[in-house]
Amino acid sequence: MASDGGYNSVDLSWSQCSRDQLQSFLSSDHGECVKDLPLLGGSLQDWKPGLYYGIDDQCRIAFGNVARACSFNTGDIDMCRVLSCHVVPGDQSSCTRLLVPLLDGTECAPNQWCLKGRCVSPSQLSSSMAVHGSWSSWSEFSPCSRTCGGGVSARRRQCNNPRPAFGGNNCKGPDTEAELCNMQPCPRTQLEFMEEQCSMTDSQPLYLSSSDATGYHWISAVGYVTGDLQCKLMCRSQGEDFMVSRGARFVDGTRCEPSSLAPTGSVSACLAGTCQLFGCDGLLNSGKVKDACGVCGGDGSSCSLVSDSYTEGHAKEYTTFLTLPQNATQVHIVNTRPIFTHLAVLVQGKYVVAGTGSVSLNTTHPSPLEDGRLTYLLYLTPDLLPHKEELLLPGPVEEDIHIQVGMRVQKGHISLRLKYYS
Predict the structure, then answer these.
(1) Measured distance CA(378)–CA(117) in Å, rounded
(2) Residue pLDDT, tens place only, 226-277
(3) What are the residues whose beta carbons fall under 8 Å from the beta carbon of 328, sequence distance 6 or more?
(4) Closest to 401 measured CA to CA, from 306, 299, 333, 312
């Protein structure tokens, strides 16, 4: 009698009135209808209603939309014999009980389910009772999470139609579909968008102990964490050497640095607190990549490789040896003799690499989170002397960019190799 969720249906007993009415009904030959078998193939009655309505769903049905299931720690009653719910938003300390059993099929512990008011495991049941999970229908796509800079619109489905139970298989395939949206650039960079979210928590003090509240200014933790951890609203205290999560997660679409190298043209962005990879077509995990010409899914036939070298320069000044053409892609420049020479880069008339007469440190412009970032790498010998410089820019180039070489002495040797597609 437990599976219908009726009031006190675990220890159901008939009242005198109900007993008399039922006996009168059956004795007057009106009970033939109970002999009919239900013709409800594929319905909830084929399985167990708890497979479709979890314990949170049952709490919401009983107490309203804000209700959530309680953690069940009391040993005086089997969890499946009573519905226990938090009914006040934000209050996890009190638990309201309704003396009805959980629906048959409700998950009551890891790999255990309610059945007739008891929490049972597959070993207590026959293999024929196994219920394989099936997907619900997709939800509608959510509104774009950002107005510019590349937000995310997503839809989801759940493995609850029914839920897998009694040793059955889980659903196969993704539970989320997502795409990038509002890709037009923002006035601020991707790094500034992350910094803004961190700084919005400045008014929330950090409790280093139960009574010690300390205020900090929070900045991004880029360069300190990558991957999923970076999307957990992980921020760094300015002027201090520690990081903490300042909330559940960054806004969907916030850029992140993947833990491993991402394909050319793909975008790494936070989605539900994890660092996800979007193909060049903007679709989650599509695997679509750009060819050398910067064309998504292209075959490389729309551009040509430009390859050259450079060996000249003037002492104690910067000489421009390459002005990148618009839409240039896969720019790769190497300086193999950086002892007396070094690279410099001018973007929109401002130096972003070197520019002060000395070799630059490793630099990413505007930041490691930008989709079209320029990356400068300096390699050192075991004696910490400059060994090689490398400049990488996936493109397509949309800004005025000049690549220069600087010589510190009159007789320095220049050996630059460059290539790009245009």
Answers:
(1) 67
(2) 999 999 999 999 888 788 898 889 999 999 999 888 888 899 999 999 999 9
(3) 393, 395, 396, 397, 420, 421, 422
(4) 333
CA distances from 320 to 91, 120, 400, 403, 407 (A): 66, 76, 13, 6, 12
Residue ranges and CATH numbers for the domains of the chain are: 2-129 (3.40.1620.60), 193-278 (no CATH), 305-421 (2.60.120.830)
pLDDT score at 33: 63
Contact (CB, 8 A) for 406 and 353: no
Phi, then psi, of 314 in degrees rounded to 5 = -125, 140
Q: Read off the tokens for 3.
A: 């599976």
Classify 200 as helix, strand or coil: coil
User: How do residues 347-364 score in pLDDT, each as one tens digit?
Assistant: 999 999 998 888 889 999
Give dist(CA 252, CA 232) in Å, integer.
Answer: 11
Phi, psi of 267 (to 5 degrees): -125, 130
Read off the pLDDT band of 1 (50, 70, 90). very low
Is 36 annotated as ligand-binding?
yes
Cα(289)–Cα(262) distance, integer angstroms? 10
Residue 233 φ/ψ region, left for φ over 0, alpha for ψ in the -120 to 50 degree band, beta for the rest = left
Give me the pLDDT at residue 40, please: 42
What pLDDT does 75 receive?
53
To the question of whether residue 29 is assigned a binding role by annotation, the answer is no
By three-state DSSP, how is residue 254 classified?
A: coil
Measured in residues, the chain has a length of 422
The better pLDDT of the pair 339, 77 is held by 339
d(CA 69, CA 92): 10
Compute φ and ψ for 308, nearest 5 degrees.
Answer: -160, 175
Mean pLDDT over 4-29 rounds to: 63
With cut-offs at 50, 70 and 90, classify the pLDDT of residue 44. Answer: very low
Residue 367: how many CB atoms within 10 A of its CB?
A: 17
Model confidence, pTM: 0.73
- Tokens, residue 95: 């638990």
Helix (H, G, I), strand (E, B) or coil at 228: helix
Q: Which long-range contacts (CB under 8 A, 24 or more apart) does 269-272 make?
A: 269/150, 269/152, 269/180, 270/230, 270/231, 271/152, 271/154, 271/176, 271/178, 271/231, 272/154, 272/176
- 8 A C-beta contact, residue 294 and residue 285: no
